[in-house]
Amino acid sequence: AAPAGAVAFGVKHTDGVSAELLLRGRAEPEPVAAAGARWPLEEGTVLRFSISRASSEVNDNKVTVSFYAEGGKPINQAGVFLTGVGISLDVDADQDGVVEKNSPNKASWAWGPEGHGAILLVRCD
Fold first, then answer.
1. Which residues contact 75 (CB under 8 A, 6 or more apart)?
2. What percent of the chain clears pLDDT 90, i.e. is strictly above it?
3. pLDDT at residue 17, rounded to an integer
4. CA atoms within a 13 Å half-sphere pointing along the CA-CB vector of 85
5. Is 85:96 a contact under the CB 8 Å cutoff?
6. Rounded to whole angstroms, how far apart are CA atoms 41 and 44?
7. Options 1.10.150.240, 2.40.30.10, 2.60.40.1860, 3.30.360.10; which CATH number does 6-82 get?
């Protein structure tokens, strides 16, 4: 996806984003933290980014990749806006008719008349 003539790239991202670069020939990914760092454009290079918390609003995180020509002249930029979505399974874990987000019985399950825990029925058709 790099523009013609690009030989290097740099990455900037907002604080809510974690980014890492997997370079060809290296076993471990390299964290992308410092703005202004540049890497050569090489086949097999992978940029991975993620969000580990829910966003406060839509598109509140961003990753920008800048492309550079020989000599460091900027050519173009590509950007991605990200929205982190929080997902939680809240259940009536103590079976009292009330769905509680922080029920102490949410993390365990016990069988029987005095039991607790969720019964999850999954429809896969």
1. 3, 5, 6, 67, 68, 69
2. 48
3. 92
4. 1
5. no
6. 9
7. 2.60.40.1860
